[in-house]
């Protein structure tokens, strides 16, 4: 059981959840694969990665209007704080066969990077700056308005 992610709750009300990818265990080194739409709940349009992140550093600090993402700790560990405007939850990622699915309109912060960690992100859209909320208060105003509608 030590390989289970250290998350008490694995699905948030906002729809964030841990995905478990196939793992081919092999004494020569393990292998994990992901296939578009089969293991990832959207069409992958872009892949990017964070690396050379200094230990303890923070990234993210934004939400997306249309973009969905899956975040994978390819190496090392970090925590992802997700916030749908109503509740805030932390997922700890430290295995390369787990991915955190983040739907649209979720504020996220990536914190507590271990030094040398690599964060792989699979995204449903190409990079578009106009898809970002970079101001938390603005995000909160819009997400609250959408919820009460
Ligand atoms: P950002 O998404 O803010 O990074 P993080 O959430 O990890 O802190 O992006 C940082 C910078 O990189 C910003 O100037 C936009 C640019 N960028 C691209 O040009 N293309 C991309 O695919 C991404 C993810 C970022």
Outline the structure in words:
The strands form three sheets. Strands 1-9-6-11-4 form a five-stranded antiparallel beta sheet, with no helix packed on it. The protein has one helix at 136-148; strands spanning 17-20, 23-24, 31-32, 46-50, 59-64, 69-75, 78-83, 88-93, 98-102, 107-111, 118-123, 132-133. The protein is built from one helix and twelve strands. The model has no long low-confidence stretch (mean pLDDT 92). Helices cover 9% and strands 38% of the residues. With 149 residues, the protein is mostly beta strands. The chain binds thymidine-5'-diphosphate.
Short description:
This protein has 149 residues and is mostly beta strands.
| Percentage of residues in DSSP E strands | 35-45%
Distance between the termini: 42 Å
- Write down the secondary-structure element order: EEEEEEEEEEEEH
Strand count, sense and barrel status of the largest sheet are: 5 strands, antiparallel
Total count of helical runs of at least 4 residues:
1
Q: What is the averaged pLDDT score?
A: 92
- What value does the Rg take, in angstroms? 15 Å
User: What ions, cofactors and ligands are bound?
Assistant: thymidine-5'-diphosphate
Regarding quaternary structure, how should these chains be classified? single chain
Strand order of the largest sheet: 1-9-6-11-4
What's the shape?
A: globular
- Classification by helices and strands: mainly beta
Q: What helical percentage do the residues reach?
A: under 10%
Count all strands and give the number: 12
Low-confidence region ranges: none
């Amino acid at each position: 059981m030590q390989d289970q992610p250290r998350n008490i709750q694995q699905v948030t009300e906002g729809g964030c959840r841990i995905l478990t990818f196939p793992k081919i265990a092999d004494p020569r080194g393990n292998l994990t694969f992901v296939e578009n739409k089969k293991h990832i709940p959207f069409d992958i349009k872009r892949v990017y990665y964070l690396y050379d992140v200094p230990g303890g550093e923070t990234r993210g600090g934004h939400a997306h209007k249309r973009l969905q993402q899956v975040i994978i700790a390819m190496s090392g560990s970090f925590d992802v704080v997700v916030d749908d405007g109503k509740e805030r939850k932390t997922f700890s990622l430290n295995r390369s066969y787990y991915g955190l699915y983040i739907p649209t309109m979720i504020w996220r912060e990536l914190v507590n990077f271990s030094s040398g960690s690599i964060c792989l992100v699979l995204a449903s859209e190409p990079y578009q700056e106009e898809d970002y909320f970079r101001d938390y208060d603005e995000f909160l105003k819009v997400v609250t308005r959408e919820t009460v509608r």
